[in-house]
Every structure is written in C-alpha cells, then in structure tokens.
Amino acid sequence: MSPSPSTGVELHSIAFTLNGDRRTLNIPPWVTLLDLLRDELDLTGTKKGCDHGQCGACTVLRDGKRINACLTLAVMCDGAELTTVEGLATGDELHPMQRAFIKHDAFQCGYCTPGQICSAVGLAREGRANNRDDIKELMSGNLCRCGAYTNIIAAVEEALPHSGGELGQGGAQS
Ligand code: FES
Ligand code: FES
Fold first, then answer.
1. Are 35 and 43 in contact (CB under 8 A)?
2. What residues flank ligand 1, with Cβ below 6 Å?
3. What spacing in Å lies between the alpha carbon of 105 and ligand 2's midpoint?
4. 62 in Cβ contact with 47 (< 8 Å)
5. Alpha-carbon distance 155 to 83, whole Å?
6. Which ligand has the minimum distance to the alpha carbon of residue 106?
7. Residue 55: nearest ligand to its CA?
8. Which residues is 25 bridged to in the sheet?
9. Which ligand is located closest to the Cα atom of residue 71?
10. d(CA 112, CA 17)
C-alpha cells in the first residue's frame, strides 16, 4: 500500500490479466471491479444495472467463473484472470455465444446482453446445464427488463456445447 500524493488515501497495488493483457494498477480499497472497469479502464461493455447484485448486468468472468462485478472489490481480483464481454471475441471472430445471441435476436434494448453472454459462457464452463429448464434456472440471476427470455434461452441452448465448456450429463435438451 502507498498513499496517493494528492489525496492521502492509501492505495493498493494490484495486478491482473484483463482480456489477455497484463494490468497493474494502484487503487483505493473500496473501488468495485465494476467501477474500475467502466470508469478507469473504459470497458463500458459491462453494465451497471442495480449495483446491488440483483440484476446480473455486470457479470464478468474471473478465472473462468461468472461473478457480479458490482459486488466484487477490485482488490479481490489481484492475481486473477478477468474476461469481460470485450474479451470474448477472437480478433474479428465473435465468440459462439455472441453469434448465437445475434442469430436468435436475443435482445431488445441490449442493456442486459453483455451480462447475459458472460454469464452463459460461465455456465458452459460449469457443466451443470442438462436441459432448457436448467438453463432457465442457472441463468435466473440475469434479468432482462425487455423480457427477451425466450430468445435468450434459445441462444444459450444452441451455443452451450460450443462455448469452451462442458455440458452436464446428456447435454442441453429441450
Ligand atoms: Fe451488478 Fe446489477 S449491476 S448485479
Ligand atoms: Fe433490454 Fe434485456 S434486452 S434488458
């Protein structure tokens, strides 16, 4: 820790990998990962909805697991590997989950979409989704105020086997 010359606040030095790039930062201990991403690192794909862990708009991946960035202090990510929606594509090639959301028109306003996609990629890695009902249940932390759920579920169901994870026994079935 070292105090900021301008404010006297004790800053914490942290380092993590963000979308494949190594980042080292000095930050106050109370800054959330969500605010760090949006306000300091200009990664505004991750959205702030409720800021209370209830909507999932802020979902990102930490070490491959989905987390709510609004409930995560940035200092808790020291040494982590972070992926936001901006880091899912490979060059010009969209992630299979992104392609499925486009194919199934799985959005209206799009505000919840980055969180939905990151959450679905995390779900694929968990290997717990055996059927459409599992997807609904395990994606229930990601709210869509436009009510695009039918198309979101269809997109997730299609992309789950292609999203770098494991399906539960039997794979996703409708
Ligand atoms: Fe994080 Fe709503 S903004 S859960
Ligand atoms: Fe508008 Fe989900 S598409 S909130």
1. no
2. 48-51, 53-58, 68, 70
3. 11
4. no
5. 20
6. 2
7. 1
8. 14
9. 1
10. 24
What does the radius of gyration of the chain's CA atoms come to, in whole angstroms? Answer: 17
- Give residue 17's Cα distance to chain centre: 15
Q: Is 149 in the pocket of ligand 2 (CB under 6 A)?
A: no
Q: Is the CB of 148 under 6 A from ligand 2?
A: yes
Q: Are β-strands 10-18 and 81-83 bridged in parallel, bridged antiparallel, or unpaired?
A: parallel
Per mean pLDDT, which range of 6-15, 26-35, 59-68 is the poorest? 6-15
Q: How far apart are CA 32 and CA 76, in angstroms?
A: 9
Residue where the block lists tokens 């594509």: 89
To which H or E segment does residue 100 belong?
helix 96-103
* Residue whose entry in the numeric block shows the structure tokens 């999932």: 56
CB hemisphere CA count around 116 (13 angstroms)? 31
C-beta of 111 in contact with ligand 2 (< 6 A): yes
How far, in Å, CA of 174 to CA of 163, rounded? 18
Tokens of 153: 């579920």
How many whole angstroms from 36 Cα to the centroid of ligand 1?
14
Distance (angstroms) between ligand 2 centre and the Cα of 79 equals: 32
Give the tens place of pLDDT for each residue, 33-56: 999 999 999 999 999 999 999 999
Position 39, amino acid: D
134 and 168 Cβ atoms separated by less than 8 Å: yes
pTM of the model: 0.91
